[in-house]
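New to this. Help decode both lines:
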Amino acid sequence: MPGSIGHQTSRPWRFVHHGFYSRRHVRRVLDDAVMKRLQALVSESETRHSGEIRIVVEAGLPNSYLWKRLSARDRAITLFGKLRVWDTEHNNGVLIYLLLAERRIEIIADRALDRRVSIIEWHSLLGDMRAEFAAGRFEQGLTAAVAAVSGLLRQHFPLAPGESNPNELSDAPVRLG
């Protein structure tokens, strides 16, 4: 099962910290040009496998998540459902979720891919991105995440010669504030 990187803090500190982050922070670290490059990367990736990749970048968790002491992973799972990443023909959609307030990344894979990738592989993939996010290099970290997920999808769900991948989900990254 895919995992995450990041750290936990006390509830009062999380309210203050997450409240400080806004859509403006997301736009500052991932401007429109970066979002277009990420979208192009996802689009290009999906020409080589049958999977679907979605990227969501959120400034901070909603207060309801903070109050209930829910994690970035809980939020990613909710968004996986809301964005219908689970609803692909081959059950091989993947959500890459970045929570700026905690510099935490979550990768949620649908059941067909998750069954084929070991927990060790998921943790290795996340570990490779840790330095990029810790250093605030969000575009590089997300680019690495897309490349790594794309590699897994190519390995387990390659397209046959002449086959194409119908675009079932938008390739545009989502900003939440």
The helical segments are 11-20, 23-29, 32-45, 63-67, 72-82, 111-114, 119-134, 138-156. DSSP finds eight helices and five strands in the chain.
